[in-house]
Design brief:
- The chain is mostly helical and about 240 residues long.
- The chain folds into two domains: about 30 residues, no CATH class; about 200 residues, no CATH class.
- It is about 70% helix and about 0% strand.
- It contains nine helices and two strands.
- Helix 2 packs antiparallel against helix 5.
- The longest helix has about 35 residues.
- About 35% of the residues are buried.
- The chain binds zinc ion.
- Zinc ion (ZN) binds next to loops.
């Protein structure tokens, strides 16, 4: 709760104006600045997510969703061992990027939509716009995995990274374990930001939002994996 500095009325945490006297109870957030937002999500995730919810313009969400798509495209090619069916790494990079660009925004909208509907059914008070914004920003660490780790993965393993014959782990065990471990940590960080974000936006317990996000992620990952298998078998 936020206490009004003028009339002492107790207001909702996400209120901008006092419900009783109409004074400002917290600062307006007209837009989100990319780099300061990224930093805030590292340093004070709770504060950053509240700022995203309060923001009048939900900047960068679709751009993050697009990069999330590219990360997912490479993730799918990796999980399906697509490297076995390519001879040239450039062809795999093009195919994974195109797949990613096609699926990024639709998959993000499905994830945000499912989270919104399930939370609304469970008594969540958040709006669609805020669900869209927190889910979008939560994907940022996951996209970081691609922009920073993927070039290293490609340089260290090339096509082998996406194969299982031989498995990249058998070739360079330490490098592979470190890279996959970092990918895993960034994915975990995305899930934590997403859970915290849904709990802030919908005013529900963190346990509830973790369950919702886990269910949504499981459904989306299963669908994506089945699609990848179908595409690779068809080609
Ligand atoms: Zn007041």
């Amino acid at each position: 709760m936020i206490q009004c500095p003028v009339c002492s009325h107790q207001n909702d945490d996400l209120a901008l104006l006092c419900a009783s006297c109409g004074s400002y109870v917290q600062e307006r957030v007209p837009t989100l600045d990319f780099f300061s937002m990224v930093w805030m999500l590292i340093e004070f995730p709770g504060k950053g997510l509240k700022k995203i919810v309060l923001a009048e313009h939900k900047n960068y969400v679709l751009m993050i969703a697009m990069f999330f798509g590219i990360s997912s495209g490479f993730g799918l090619f990796w999980s399906a061992h697509a490297g076995n069916s390519y001879e040239n790494i450039i062809h795999l990079i093009i195919a994974a990027s195109v797949t990613g660009l096609l699926i990024g925004i639709p998959v993000f909208l499905v994830m945000a939509g499912m989270s919104y509907v399930i939370l609304a059914l469970l008594g969540g008070k958040g709006t669609w716009r805020n669900t869209y914004a927190v889910v979008g920003w939560a994907l940022f660490p996951f996209t970081f995995a691609t922009t920073v780790l993927l070039p290293i993965e490609l340089a260290a393993f090339g096509l082998l990274f996406f194969s299982n014959n031989p498995h990249p782990y058998d070739v360079k065990p330490v490098v592979y374990a470190v890279l996959i471990g970092m990918d895993g940590l960034l994915t975990f960080w995305s899930l934590m930001i997403g859970a915290k974000g849904l709990s802030v936006a919908h005013d529900v317990s963190i346990a509830k939002s973790i369950l919702v996000l886990a269910a949504v992620s499981a459904v989306v990952l299963t669908l994506l994996y089945l699609c990848a298998q179908a595409v690779l078998f068809a080609s």
